[in-house]
Give the backbone structure.
Amino acid sequence: MNHSIKHVRLMTALFGLLLLGAGCTKSAPAYPPMSTTINVENTEVDRSFVHGDAASSWKWHDKAVRIVNETQGRTIDVEQIKGLVVEDPNAKGVFYFATLATDKLETEVFNGIYRFDSSNLNWERLYKQTSPIDDPEAVYLVAGIENGSLLIKKLPYESEILCASLFNESLGAPRSLVRMPLDAPYSKLAPVDVTQDMQYAAKQYATGCNETL
C-alpha cells in the first residue's frame, strides 16, 4: 500500500515538473536568427542625384592637387582642380573632380577626370583628353553624380564658371551637360535632361558662389 502511494506521488511530481518546464518554454523571449542582423555601416545608400561642391573650398583640395601632380613627376602647379567636387553617395570619402592644365604656349588644354579616395589618398584617372585651347568644348567639369554616372559640363576654356550655370543649358554648346558612366568613361556621352531637382539644387547652391577658371 505504501509502495503504491509513493508511486502515485512520484508520478504527480514528475507531471508537475513537465508542466513547469512547458510554462518556462512559452514565456521565454523569441530572439531573431542571426541571419536577420543588419549591419548599418555596410548598408548601401542609393541617392539618385548629388550636386557637387566648390573645389576651392573642398577639405582635401590642396592635398589632392599635390598628390596627383607629384606622383606623376610634376610640380604641384601643373594640373589644377577646377569646377566642382562630388562625393560618391555609395562610397563615403571617395570624390570625383576635374583638373586642367595648359602647355607653355597656351595652345592646348589638358583635361582629366579623377577618382580620389581620401581614406588612403589613392587616386585614379578615369578620363583624359587634350584639346586646342579654342575648342568650344575643351574643358570637362564635374557637376554632380547620378545613378553611377558623373554629370559633366563641357565648356570653352575661358568661360566664367557660375556654379548654377553648370546645369544651365544656355552656357556652353547645346546639350553640353552629359552623362559619363563610371564604368565606361570613354563611351559615347549621352546628354542629360536637367530635372527640376537638379535645377533646384543648383539654385540653392549658387547663393554667393562664383567660381571661375
About this structure: The CA atoms of residues 151 and 179 lie 5 Å apart. Confidence is low (pLDDT under 50) at residues 1-8, 10-46. The first strand starts at residue 50 and ends at 51.
